[in-house]
Amino acid sequence: MPDSSIRPQMPATAAADGGTVQGFVVAMVRTALQNSAMRNTLLAGILLMLAGDLMFALNDAMGKWLVASFSVGQVLLVRSIGAFIVLGPMIANQGMGKLLHMERPWLQVLRVAMVTLDTGLFYAAVVYLPLADVMSFYMAGPIYVAALSHLLLGEKVGWRRWLAILVGFCGVLVILKPSSAAFSLASAFALVGSIAFAFGIILNRRLRGTTDTSLVTWQTVGSLVVGAVLTIGTWRTPSPLDIGALLLLGVVSCSAHLMITRALKLAPASTLAPLHYTLLLWAVVFGLVFFGDVPGPRILTGAAIVVLAGLFIFHRQKVVDTVPPENVPKGVN
Questions:
Q1: pTM value?
Q2: Which terminus in the chain has less CB density within 10 A, N or C?
């Protein structure tokens, strides 16, 4: 008689179905369907992330085109009004009570200030710099987040990630070229804007309990208020085509935020985060096609350093997140 230990084992669900061949087949089909559903969900998250990044890049290109004719304040103001075309139904569905009941109001205000500063300085920078140059600064956002997470959130960062952070900063310096001859106010706008972007991400982590609709709505309100103030004395009457473009800018940027937010709910952040670097690729493509901007060797070199450092940080974070804490030697994360 053959040894029973080498017989094929039926899944538990097959045993629950009576241990028959039919039950075994049913269990296999269920498992296949579950795996297929997980793969489809992961694929949906990846596609939404890629689409959201494309929309953000389109928002950046449209913003560069519009700030050539209108002030940054006017672009912020009308863009924010356009965003409510998307947000209006979402606010109505959520209810005003939940919107007005703010969790940690001072952190909410600080986050709105950081996101508004990030958006305004981005548009101010692209007035003078090519899209790819400005986006290269913003690609350092994850590097700043890793450093700030240690300082502000108490998250442990081991020597490998600290080394990657330092390398990433070197890449930023290559892009910035901080000399009296090359340093410009536009570069400072991009640098400070990218740091504000990182602070916004950190504050997002602190406000996990707030709904996405509330977060995006309040940051839009902040941009609207700041835009209205900055527009005083600089208003230029737009044509119907310009109004449409400014409103469309708000729809595009708001849709991008919502796509990426949904993507992060469908797929792990460690899987999606590296895809965010496609923004740099789109910035190069749109800058070349629409504005004739060709990034120089210094920008490409600095951007490559920043991207590689950021990818390594994502990799190490994934290792720390997936390996049991007791198996991670102290200080090597």
A1: 0.77
A2: N
Q: What is the pLDDT of residues 81-137, one digit of tens each?
A: 999 999 999 988 888 888 887 778 888 899 999 999 999 999 999 999 899 889 888
CB-based contact 53:275 (threshold 8 Å):
yes
Q: CA-CA distance, 100 to 314, in Å (whole number)?
A: 35
Q: Which residues contact 85 (CB under 8 A, 6 or more apart)?
A: 247, 250, 251, 254
DSSP one-letter string for 281-299: HHHHHHHHHHH-----HHH
Residue 6 has pLDDT above 50, yes or no: no
Distances (CA, A) of 26 to 19, 82, 113, 220: 11, 51, 55, 50
Q: For 273, which DSSP code? A: G
DSSP-based three-state secondary structure for 141: helix
What's the one-letter identity of residue 311?
Answer: L
In whole angstroms, what is the distance from residue 163 CA to residue 93 CA?
46
Side-chain-side CA neighbours of 186 within 13 Å: the count stands at 14
Give helix 21-66 / helix 131-138 axis angle, nearest 10°. Answer: 130
User: Can you give the residue ranges of every domain in the chain?
Assistant: 54-327
3-state secondary structure of 67: coil
Find the length of the chain. 333
